[in-house]
Amino acid sequence: MTARLIDGHALAATVRSDLATRAGALKARGITPALAVILVGDDAASAVYVRNKIAACEKTGIRSLHFSFAGDVDPAVVFAKIDELNRDAEVHGILVQLPLPKQFETDAVLETIAVEKDVDGFHAQNIGALAQGKPRFIPCTPYGVMKMLASINASLEGAEAVIVGRSNIVGKPMALLLLAQGCTVTICHSQTRDLAFHTRRADILIAAVGRPKMITGGMIKPGAVVIDVGINRLPDGKLCGDVDFASASEVCAAITPVPGGVGPMTIAMLLANTLEAAERLAL
Ligand code: GUN
């Protein structure tokens, strides 16, 4: 291994410690920052993510409210809950865990969340604000990635950034954030003709496709910074990323591990957005 490891656990702990101080300051003014999390259905991975988000709230002095609904729930019940939380002055952030069961129109659900409580940053208005370079809430995973790049002083101005994956949650907002920092951005996806041609040009390579170990060392430019957003479970039960860590870390300058890389930072930035929401609503 020659690459520098970007430790998501350590960086997330630093972020949380700053947030705990800010949460304490709000509490001294009689305001307890609070995040409401809605989980629909019994997707095992989603249940783990929600549990981790709630545990991180407790560690940071943020109150969490958790609402679970059966997978066949009438969407009207979930809309009514969001509406109630929108009007609750003691709730500052609202998160609906994705994916939702098929009877839901996801965009309609996300757009029911009050824009000032949309701590995931998925509401169309918040994505629009981000696209205009005036972000209100930055989606948590790309926000965490930007913090990781800043932590190693990655040089972004004029850098070639290649993102593999075009999701609304990661790929697209990631592109907007890197663009705002002066990167030349390429987004690759399942229809990209020659993926390695693009990845080999990347100074900053972001893998967010959900395919175990698909980016190998031979696809990476020597000295690149590699950020692995993927979390995949292998048949033996072990977790791995979208990047083949063993071969990639022989080539690149810095790399995030899986687990212990982007995952903890996503949660830390959710807490950051919740605190930001509480501070703004308390003004
Ligand atoms: N599912 C996978 N990632 C996320 C996320 O960042 N937020 C929500 N709400 N659901 C997700």
Automatic annotation (TrEMBL):
Catalysed conversion reaction: (6R)-5,10-methenyltetrahydrofolate + H2O = (6R)-10-formyltetrahydrofolate + H(+); (6R)-5,10-methylene-5,6,7,8-tetrahydrofolate + NADP(+) = (6R)-5,10-methenyltetrahydrofolate + NADPH
One term under GO cellular component: cytosol
InterPro entries found in the cross-reference section: Aminoacid_DH-like_N_sf, NAD(P)-bd_dom_sf, THF_DH/CycHdrlase, THF_DH/CycHdrlase_cat_dom, THF_DH/CycHdrlase_CS, THF_DH/CycHdrlase_NAD-bd_dom
Record flagged with keyword Repeat: no
Pfam families associated with the record: THF_DHG_CYH (PF00763), THF_DHG_CYH_C (PF02882)
Keyword vocabulary terms for this entry: Amino-acid biosynthesis, Histidine biosynthesis, Hydrolase, Methionine biosynthesis, Multifunctional enzyme, NADP, One-carbon metabolism, Oxidoreductase, Purine biosynthesis
Tetrahydrofolate dehydrogenase/cyclohydrolase catalytic domain residues: 6-120
Coiled-coil portions: none
A single GO BP: methionine biosynthetic process
Keyword match NADP: yes
Chain positions recorded as NADP(+) binding sites: G165, R166, S167, I231
Residue ranges occupied by any Tetrahydrofolate dehydrogenase/cyclohydrolase NAD(P)-binding domain in the UniProt entry: 139-280
Described purpose of this protein according to its UniProt entry: Catalyzes the oxidation of 5,10-methylenetetrahydrofolate to 5,10-methenyltetrahydrofolate and then the hydrolysis of 5,10-methenyltetrahydrofolate to 10-formyltetrahydrofolate.
Family, per entry: Belongs to the tetrahydrofolate dehydrogenase/cyclohydrolase family.
Assembly behavior: Homodimer.
Protein name: Bifunctional protein FolD
Native organism taxonomy: Bacteria, Pseudomonadati, Pseudomonadota, Betaproteobacteria, Nitrosomonadales
Gene that encodes it: folD
